[in-house]
Amino acid sequence: MTAMETPNNHFSASNRLCLTLVTGEVGAGKTTRLARYVSDCRGCGLRVGGVIARRTRDGYEFVDVNSGCARAYAARNPDQGPAACLRFLFDAEAFAWLNGVLRSAVEDRCDVIVYDEYGPLERGGGGAFGALNEVVARFPGRLAIAVRRSLAHHVPIALGIPPAGVEIIDVGFLS
Asked: Could you report how far apart the first and last alpha carbons of the chain are, in Å?
């Protein structure tokens, strides 16, 4: 059994951060798996903080797993011609809000923090990258992050987490 299946075993023996990467391709079920984990952890009496991403008609929004508050962070780029650099336009204020949610989860001494999803923005040092580094530096629980397979190898390196402290759960495609 993995830590994602046994929420009561979410701490490492050394009381240092444990990282779980929930990997898969677009539509594979990473978000669904993280949402189920949040529910399972709460069922075991654990305090959970962080965000789950939700697809909207026009893009994506972050949802705070504690308050249920949502903030749109990515809107489809109306310029989809050959000169378009990005499929989505990102809202810097929504990322500032997200970073505050992650920092609050540490300050509130949550047992588990979830983040959906580490992507190209974070790989480039943007998005939630700064807040995730703060979580790693200050948080002794389990950090569960959704990430596409193609970026999974980058996350522990970028966050300075040794391989022994990383668990990878590949969700595959939902049937």
From this structure: 21
Condensed to tens digits (0 to 9), the pLDDT of residues 37-75 reads 999 999 999 999 999 999 999 999 999 999 999 999 999
Whether residue 117 has a cis bond before it, omega within 30° of 0: yes
Cβ–Cβ < 8 Å for 94, 85: no
Are 170 and 23 within 8 A, CB to CB? yes
Neighbours of 130 (CB within 10 A): 15
Question: Where do the DSSP E strands lie in the chain?
Answer: 18-24, 48-55, 59-64, 70-76, 88-90, 112-118, 142-148, 166-170
**pTM for the model:** 0.86
Instruction: Give, for 157, the enclosing helix (H) or strand (E).
Output: helix 154-159
For tokens 């569960």, name the residue.
Answer: 144
Cα 106–Cα 111–Cα 114 angle in degrees, nearest 5? 70
Answer for the pair 52, 65: CB distance below 8 angstroms, yes or no: yes
- Across 22-30, average pLDDT: 88
Q: Domains plus CATH for the chain? A: 15-170 (3.40.50.300)
Classify residue 103 by its DSSP letter.
H
